[in-house]
Amino acid sequence: MATTKSSISVPLSYEALELTHVKLSHHPHGVPNATPVVVITLNRPEKHNAFTPQMANSLECTFRMIHFDNRVKVVVLTGAGRMFCAGSDLDIGFGDGKGRAVDFRDIGGRVALAMHRCHKPTIVALQGAAVGVGMTMTLPAAIRICHEQSKYGFVFTQRGLTIESCASYFLPRLVGFSRAMHLIATGGVFPPTPKYFGDLFTEALPDAVQVLPRALEMAQEMAETTSPLASAMSRALMWEGPRSPEAAHLLESRVFHHIMGEQDYREGVNSFLEKRKPQFKTNPQENGPPGYPWWFPVDVQLGLPLSKSNL
């Protein structure tokens, strides 16, 4: 079942929330209530931000809140300390494989779907190395910025595991099937160069301390200059679009026609002609086009009836 606003409590201040293994902050600093840019920090530096079920719960909860919060326009996700994320905490493990497969949901996938479903774009600032779920959970983000001297990898096969966090969907679409196959088949850890990752990383910066400030700079610009409605619908058109150019044309035309009748379009044109920053106010939850979502969302909540298609 899809998350509804009635089931989510949006806080006055994200900094006041007490979440396990995750820290939330406003940007710029010193603002008491939610700002257009909210920073999510993986906060287990003593464990290199190794991923835990509690961290997954905190991230999933945060993305769901931000999805419904009209004050927030862009999310920045980063890590505390010298690594972005060392993958899952192997001291905790993944379970013993007992019970029904239909009742299992990988925790990285829950986070990836929460990020993907959030109408607000995410910029990931990988200020240090990342492996395993530390990489796969970033794939639904709009932008990834990294440190060029750090290394990154999808190490699952070297741990006797398969990929998760919806990576089988996102990774080949982002880097191509050939590179995705190489990354997964080798399970290797590599520098963030196009040879291995294509253009998965928008920017690779020479100094680790440059990564988060650059992500915040980009997030602030996006928050000030892009329409939340146009951004959310454009990303949905790419991720959930038809498979033929003709069908894409028909869908894009229908969505474009709807957007032309919205306030954000008039504001975008007027602000450009008047040489000022736009003041976009249209809410993606309330002003989406008729028939949105145009795809068939799959219910991934527990409690589905047991059938072969659910295994």
Automatic annotation (TrEMBL):
<dbReference type="Pfam" id="PF00378">
    <property type="entry name" value="ECH_1"/>
</dbReference>
<dbReference type="InterPro" id="IPR029045">
    <property type="entry name" value="ClpP/crotonase-like_dom_sf"/>
</dbReference>
<dbReference type="InterPro" id="IPR051053">
    <property type="entry name" value="ECH/Chromodomain_protein"/>
</dbReference>
<dbReference type="InterPro" id="IPR001753">
    <property type="entry name" value="Enoyl-CoA_hydra/iso"/>
</dbReference>
<comment type="similarity">
    <text>Belongs to the enoyl-CoA hydratase/isomerase family.</text>
</comment>
<protein>
    <submittedName>
        <fullName>Enoyl-CoA hydratase AKT3-1</fullName>
    </submittedName>
</protein>
<dbReference type="InterPro" id="IPR014748">
    <property type="entry name" value="Enoyl-CoA_hydra_C"/>
</dbReference>
